[in-house]
Amino acid sequence: MLKKSLAALLVCSALSPLVAIAPSTFAEPGYGGPRWGANLENLNLTPEQRQRLQAVRQQYQGQMEQTRNQLRTAKQELRQMMSGNASEDQIRSKYQQVRQLENQLASLRFESMLAMRGILTPQQRQALATQMQQRRQGNRPMKPQQ
């Protein structure tokens, strides 16, 4: 059971950077997973859309940063417990804390993504989905000529 939990922890740690929408003008280290910034720039966002996207980012940034820090600390503590003399119950408890923080961070990212999605028009969403699919396949779209 403990081996399965540890394997799951390692997999979750590797996969924890989930998708977050962050225009490149806001994309700084630690805001989330893969950036949509380059793709958003190709969507001809209005100044109002850019401003609204910035507001959403600011709304979630503090919570996400705090949760990321708590998660980083909890994972470090779990690693120390695994190599130390902590009991199995203490390790399980810490593992549950890590899982809870991972879920909390994933929920914040998802809510942020939904809020940003609501700012885009249906055409922009479709164009974004196409661009992201191309990026996943390694066919990065060229920037539009100006």
From TrEMBL:
Any coiled-coil regions, as ranges: 50-111
Residue ranges of the region described as Disordered: 125-146
Residues in the signal sequence: 1-27
CDD domains for this protein: CpxP_like
Keyword Plastid found: no
Biased composition (Low complexity): 125-136
Protein name, as recorded: Spy/CpxP family protein refolding chaperone
Upper taxonomic lineage: Bacteria, Bacillati, Cyanobacteriota, Cyanophyceae, Acaryochloridales
